[in-house]
Design brief:
The complex is a heterodimer. Chain A is 73% helix and 3% strand. By secondary structure, chain A is mainly α. Chain A has one domain. In chain A, a hairpin with a 2-residue loop joins strand 1 and strand 2. The longest helix of chain A is centred in the first third of the chain and has 31 residues. Chain A is globular. In chain A, 45% of the residues are buried. Chain B is globular and about 65 Å long. In chain B, helix 5 packs across helix 6, helix 7 packs across helix 8 and helix 11 packs across helix 12. Chain B is of the alpha/beta class. Chain B contains 12 helices and 15 strands. Chain B folds into 2 domains: 202 residues, Response regulator (Rossmann fold, 3-Layer(aba) Sandwich); 157 residues, Response regulator (Rossmann fold, 3-Layer(aba) Sandwich), CATH 3.40.50. The chains are: A mainly alpha, B alpha/beta. Chains A and B meet through helix 1, strand 2, helix 9 and helix 10 of A and helix 2, strand 7, helix 7, helix 8 and helix 9 of B.
């Protein structure tokens, strides 16, 4: 029972981190109609920038400055890259962001090398916040939870309660009309892209010390982010939140408990073939849940695509 | 006029080349390891250590035979067995007789098979395989052949030393084994279960688990299980980002016992652990950097750090490869025919630069050497990753597993 609570917290941390990444991506998608393959690369840049800044003026300034730098870079990419490619259609845009992802990875390796960076959590947060039955919850995790929740509330407020948010929402659905009303739609697009990438940057800054700051970090997280927004429904902020938490908890729980396929199959009424090592079903019978934990989100995505193609909270028909 | 110049140049060039050929040859050693992709850091660092060892230990001392120089030729195999075979063919076509490879036992298995086949079919162009890091026990047992020489202690020998250390620690009653889901991770787990069962059946193995290699984002759920199992010690064969991820997460979530590892040092890992790893991380390896075994070793380390300030002398055995190969070539009196060189290497005894004796066992071509248990600490003379932290020898098994059995049945030419 205690362990369930611990796993709930761990899953929440994973889920909220995923949310910060997918929130930006889903916003950018609903705006431009294009998946930004380089999104996880901005997450990586956030971690590396923050690491570099933290060497000189500490972790907290890194948390403040690095996302801004990443956001400006993202806005620059939209203004001088994507906007020019946009006129040729979606496929060139897709290829552009894909190329950008490869480019960023190479540049990071060129500057910082291929080894993992010694980016550590700030000293002030290096203590155990509390422990449940011998399992300590580091203070840094609590800090991560608060940062992510604050960002979600802030984002929701801006998008639904402010004038800027309303213009953005309108520009997403009816860009021509909004433009006719005298708003600068390209500027809005650039802004949203910048904010989206800055969010990925924040995620990188706070995830770098715990998940590791190395050139493969974008690759490791890249595909799961797309899965999240597909499950949540492309373009939906609430969807991104629910899907992120769902994925966080599913993977955490299936890794924490050794559920065996053998038990499941026996329960379903199948008999175990003997001897098992000669059977063609050997691999299926010997699967345990930690082994397949990381592919469960993909299975969930396939199911969602079959039964509810527009995702959990999506409005758009696929 | 112009024709004359060209003619003159050509003559001069021909003369120069033939003079060079008559005086001294270069003996090329192909280095086939990852120089791009996720493991490029490890590969590149290994290459530097080879180039430095060849330069310092052979070329500066006048080379081998009558002044022949060693040259390391790098081939990038992207850590893929398929790519390695292509690069092996390229190396053989260039007339290279010595193949050095180390990263990944999967690659080593493919190479040793291909080299064995090649040598059988081409008795005039045989090559030797100098395996400096791939530790799958099979390479010197069922899959052994006359052309393969292993300079690292294999996974079983290391686990033997490691379990000795665990058994001698009375505080350890429960052990958790976790590793990457592939041949090496499985070999480590099997060896741990076997040796612990033989030496100390009273020690309980409370967990034996494999996780996907290179794909785990967050090790927290695994650490929770380790802490919940109340294990006193953890054994893992993890390397690279998986080692850092697992180790840091386990320590962060409240584990305080020792973590026994194979590869938790250098290549950014030492720096990433920093203060957190002190008192917990243990490493089983050959080659002693701290405390330095002798002045020669100290000078060698300093010279290496001067040339490669960002590099690490993480694979001490590379100097053994170079020194023993040079010695064997001198003894054989030729570098072109690898058969006498191989015979000279087999059974060779040598004093290691890092202290201690080395003996290339004749029966299976496994180098028998001192294996150390090391500790991650800041109490070191030579650190890794310029981090102030490094590994220090706390226990030594002299000539580890010198009489261990082998199933190798070698066919000699």
């Amino acid at each position: 029972m205690d362990l369930i609570l611990v796993n709930l917290i761990d899953g929440l941390v994973t889920g909220l981190l995923l949310f910060m990444l997918s929130a930006g991506l889903t916003l950018i998608f609903s705006m431009m109609g294009v998946l930004n393959f380089a999104h996880a690369s901005f997450y990586m840049l956030g971690a590396y920038f923050a690491f570099q800044i933290s060497l000189y003026i500490g972790f907290w300034m890194g948390l403040l400055i690095a996302p801004l730098v990443v956001g400006v870079l993202g806005a620059g990419v939209e203004r001088y890259g994507l906007r020019r490619v946009h006129q040729y259609g979606h496929v060139p845009e897709l290829i552009f962001t894909f190329g950008l992802a490869l480019l960023i990875e190479e540049v990071v390796q060129f500057i910082w090398g291929k080894n993992q960076m010694p980016y550590a959590t700030p000293e002030i947060l290096q203590f155990t916040a509390f422990s449940i039955a011998g399992n300590s919850i580091p203070a840094y995790k609590i800090f991560m939870i608060f940062i992510s929740i604050a960002i979600f509330i802030g984002l929701l407020y801006v998008l639904t309660r402010t004038r800027v948010g309303m213009i953005i929402q309108a520009a997403l659905t009816y860009p021509k009309t909004v433009e006719a009303l005298g708003h600068n739609v390209p500027l809005i697009f650039m802004g949203v892209f910048g904010v989206g990438t800055a969010l990925a940057g924040v995620a990188g800054v706070i995830a770098g010390p715990v998940l590791g700051t190395f050139p493969g970090m974008a690759f490791v997280l890249g595909s799961i982010v797309f899965v999240t927004i597909v499950i949540g429904g492309l373009g939906s902020l609430w969807g991104a939140l629910v899907a992120s938490l769902l994925i966080g908890w599913i993977t955490t729980f299936s890794k924490a408990y050794n559920l065996r396929m053998e038990d499941l199959l026996t329960w379903a009424g199948f008999t175990k073939p003997e001897p098992i090592w000669d059977s063609a079903w050997r691999d299926l019978w010997s699967i345990t849940s930690p082994q397949i934990a990381d592919i469960l989100p993909y299975i969930l995505m396939v199911l969602i695509l079959i039964f509810r193609p527009y995702g959990l909270f999506g409005k758009r028909d696929a | 006029m112009r024709t004359k110049t060209i003619l003159g140049l050509t003559t001069a060039l021909t003369l120069a080349v033939s003079a060079f050929a008559a005086g001294a040859d270069t003996i090329k050693i192909a280095f086939i390891d990852p120089l791009s992709g996720p493991f490029a850091g490890t590969g590149t660092n290994g290459l530097h250590q080879y180039q430095f060892a060849a330069e310092e230990l052979v070329n500066k001392k006048g080379g081998v035979l009558d002044g022949d120089m060693f040259e390391i030729v790098a081939f990038d195999n992207k850590i893929s067995p398929k790519e390695s075979l292509i690069q092996l063919q390229v190396a053989i076509d260039q007339g290279i007789r010595y193949i050095a490879q180390g990263n990944s036992s999967g690659v080593a298995n493919a190479l040793t098979e291909a080299i064995n086949k090649h040598n059988r079919r081409n008795p005039d162009g045989r090559v030797l395989f100098l395996n400096y890091s791939a530790v799958d026990p099979a390479l010197t047992n069922d899959k052994c052949n006359f052309w393969h020489f292993r300079f690292d202690a294999n996974a079983d020998i290391k686990m033997d030393a490691l379990t000795d250390s665990i058994v001698s620690n009375d505080a350890i009653e429960k052990v958790y084994i976790i590793g990457q889901d592939y041949s090496f991770g499985k070999a480590v787990a099997a060896a741990a279960v076997k040796y612990l069962g033989e030496k100390a059946p009273e020690i309980e193995i409370v967990g034996n688990e494999l996780h996907p290699i290179g794909k785990v984002k967050d090790f927290t759920p695994y650490s929770r299980k380790i802490v919940a199992s109340e294990a006193d010690a953890v054994i893992t064969g993890n390397w690279g980002a998986d080692m850092v991820g697992l180790g840091k997460s386990v320590l962060e979530n409240g584990f305080t016992g020792p973590i026994y590892t194979y590869y938790a040092a250098a290549d950014g890992i030492t720096a990433a652990f920093g203060d957190a790893g002190v008192g917990s991380l243990r490493l089983v390896a050959e080659g002693q950097l701290n405390p330095p075994a002798n002045d020669t070793a100290s000078e060698y380390i300093q010279a290496f750090k001067t040339k490669y300030p960002d590099g690490n002398l993480s694979q001490a055995r590379i100097t053994n490869v170079i020194e023993m190969l040079a010695k064997a070539i001198n003894e054989a009196g030729t570098a072109d025919d690898v058969v006498p060189v191989a015979y000279a290497l087999a059974g060779m005894e040598h004093e290691s630069l890092w202290g201690g004796q080395l003996m290339m066992r004749e029966s299976d071509h496994q180098l028998i050497q001192n294996v150390h248990i090391m500790e991650h600490t800041d109490d070191v003379v030579y650190d890794y990753d310029n981090s102030g932290f490094g590994v220090k020898v706390v226990k030594t098994v002299e000539m580890a597993a010198a009489d261990s059995p082998t199933s190798c049945q070698m066919r000699r030419p």
